[in-house]
Design brief:
single chain; mainly alpha; 265 residues; 11 helices; 0% strand
Length: 265
């Protein structure tokens, strides 16, 4: 009679999932859901539609434009909709009840959050590539239809500034999503911060001189304005950094702390 020696199962150690793989998974999650997929399609479609309308108007009215004008039009739908994807990238785990599976496969919640943040940055770069491609196509069609000379200008600087603006917008949306852990609430709070809050800030700056000087230091949206106009001065970078601490870094830190402490159901 032969007795087979039993080999004990070693459960004392686990192999970490490669961070690159976590990023790929988070990127796939952004397009796997119906909401995320249609949001990505809507961003590209609306950008193309805005450029077509702009091209039709400038050709019909024989206006002189350059590549920066098409980039500015491209920035409008991208800048508005991409932060929504930033919110959904972090809230999807709770809204779709997949957090338990995610954190069971990768117990380190901080690594998961970091992978989500990196995926948001990757999407920003991809969106810039799509936007530049659509803008360049509109510029070429403008040259063909109008017969005017094409002026490309400082496209590289503008592209970089738009990328920084989109990254700030998506990470801000990500921060509010992490803070609230609810897609609807995160999106509403982000749009209130982006489109409602600047109104009292602007009124206060018009009525009070001291608040006019204070506004660039506390109004993150206002501080990002020079990004769309060209290069920033040293003081404008200081305004961006200081206001960003209030509206981006602080909510992000609290949101990450909440994710790390939140009960997973």
């Amino acid at each position: 009679m032969t007795v087979l020696a039993e080999t004990p199962l070693n459960v004392t150690g686990t192999r970490k999932i490669a961070f690159e793989r976590l990023v790929r998974v988070e990127l796939r999650k952004l397009a796997d859901t119906r909401a995320g997929r249609w949001l990505l399609i809507s961003v590209a479609a609306l950008t193309a539609l805005v450029l077509v309308i702009q091209l039709w108007v400038v050709v019909a009215q024989d206006l002189q434009v350059d590549f920066s004008d098409f980039l500015l039009a491209m920035n409008t739908p991208m800048g508005i909709l991409l932060p929504v994807l930033g919110v959904m990238s972090v809230t999807s785990e709770w809204s779709q009840r997949t957090a338990m599976v995610t954190f069971a496969l990768e117990p380190s919640r901080l690594r998961v959050v970091a992978a989500k943040l990196v995926s948001v940055l990757v999407v920003s770069v991809g969106a810039l590539a799509v936007g530049l491609l659509l803008g360049a196509l509109a510029q070429l069609l403008y040259g063909v239809l109008s017969g005017n000379e094409l002026v490309w200008g400082s496209a590289g600087t503008l592209a970089f500034n738009y990328l920084v603006s989109w990254v700030l917008g998506m990470v801000t949306g990500f921060a509010y999503g992490a803070l609230l852990l609810n897609s609807a609430a995160g999106i509403v709070v982000y749009f209130v911060y982006s489109f409602v809050l600047p109104i009292p800030f602007a009124i206060g700056a018009q009525l009070m001189d001291w608040f006019d000087h204070l506004r660039p230091w506390i109004d993150f949206s206002f501080a990002q304005g020079p990004l769309l106009q060209g290069s920033l001065t040293g003081s404008e970078w200081a305004h961006l950094a200081t206001s960003g601490l209030i509206w981006l870094v602080l909510p992000l830190v609290v949101g990450i702390w909440r994710i790390n402490r939140a009960e997973v159901k």
